[in-house]
Amino acid sequence: MKKIKLIFPLIALFSLTIIAQTDNVKNEPGYVDFGDLAQFESSTGVTEVILDEDLLSILAQISTDDDPNVMAIMEGLKLVKANVFEVSEETESDLKSKINSIDSKLSGTDWKRIVKTRSEDELANVYIKHNNNKQIIGLVVTSMESSGEAAFVNIVGTIDLATIGKLGKQFNIPQLDGMKNQKEDNDEN
Question: Cα(84)–Cα(58) distance, rounded to whole angstroms?
């Protein structure tokens, strides 16, 4: 019973630390505020992943046994945030509107769109942001498949597109799996 009483204050302290760090990362140039996504959380399939710099560091150390490259991939990252929602007839229009709103917001800034997909039942955008040294410091993925899933992903920090797919595989974020191929396609253009 004493252990249980000790766990709750530790969880509260840990939660406050994460909230404070998330507020700090909002000032990073690679951070994008997707706005209020709470209206989509009532759908039957919801996944939210928020990995701040400290958690990424811990996970990198743990993951070195499985893949020694994971530590190098996560070294410069400050935040990995993914919100994935099941698309239903009720939410499809609002999700499409949210993705289009984010697309409009990023199109008029110094974010560079590297992927745009529009079809009857699929919508996707991938944006990157560079610093003055031409390093990628932000990545945004928004995607939606009718009768499938909608995803909002933001990765903040120094990013290598050639290895970011491994990060998606490690943490089961399928929208990141094809990033290496997308980078190679852009390098050819």
Answer: 24
d(CA 98, CA 77): 26
Neighbours of 142 (CB within 10 A): 25
Q: Where are the domains of the chain?
A: 35-171
Distance from C-alpha of 70 to C-alpha of 62, rounded to nearest angstrom: 10
State how far the alpha carbon of 22 is from the alpha carbons of 15, 25, 112, 164, in Å: 11, 5, 24, 21
What is the CATH code of the structural domain delimited by 35-171? 3.40.1000
**pLDDT tens-digit series, residues 129-151:** 999 998 999 999 999 998 899 99
Integer distance in angstroms from the first to the last C-alpha of the chain? 63
> pLDDT-based confidence at 10, cuts 50/70/90?
very low
